[in-house]
Amino acid sequence: MKILIADDHAVVRKGLKLLILESYPHAQVEEVANTEALLSEVVTKDWQLVICDMNMPGRSGLDALSQIRQIAPQLPVLIMSVYPQEQYAVRVIKAGASGYLGKDSLHEELPAALRQVLKGKKYISAEAAEKLADAVQGKSQQDAPHESLSDREFDVFKGLAAGKSVSEIADQLSLGVTTVSTYRSRILQKLQLTNNAALIKYALEHRLFDQL
């Protein structure tokens, strides 16, 4: 069994590898540090599972997920992040991921997540499952305006909420400054906000960024 880990922090990759080998001692586990290397590996090799960080330099994990769905539609992808599972799991599952893991609970959740995903099933927490059920019923967009954002708008939203400038976000996402400014305007309009300060307050109130 071949498993690919994508994360820009070496210590996270090493820790994940150890956890995987505890459950699957004979697995072949390889590592990459960015989305470009991840996509190259997916194109050139066969994998049974990809575990990908949601936020890496350059293109985000959601961007990588979209590309993987085109390259290898049947390849299971587990997305992990420091962000709250109940807020982000719905978005990544709807984008085509096989599951979502919070980095603060990897040690407890990874073994169960691996078993589920390698059986061809989805893995999310009970809280995220309830939120996903609401999304299927069309409730979540009424309750949470940020869930109406596209994946790219959401990437820009995260950068703005983290206090980054438009030019910093443009560099991070490999976009033009004008393009990011356009996304910012759309985001503020969709969330009915007037400026970046209000956007940061919104992110905090909705527990989207526990680390802020």
From TrEMBL:
Domain HTH luxR-type per the UniProt entry, residue ranges: 142-207
Residue span, Response regulatory domain: 2-118
Name recorded for this polypeptide: Putative two-component response regulator
Single GO MF descriptor: DNA binding
GO term, biological process aspect, one: regulation of DNA-templated transcription
Lineage: Bacteria, Pseudomonadati, Bacteroidota, Chitinophagia, Chitinophagales
Keyword Transcription regulation: yes
Organism: Flavihumibacter petaseus NBRC 106054
Origin: domain of life: Bacteria
The UniProt record lists the keyword Zinc: no
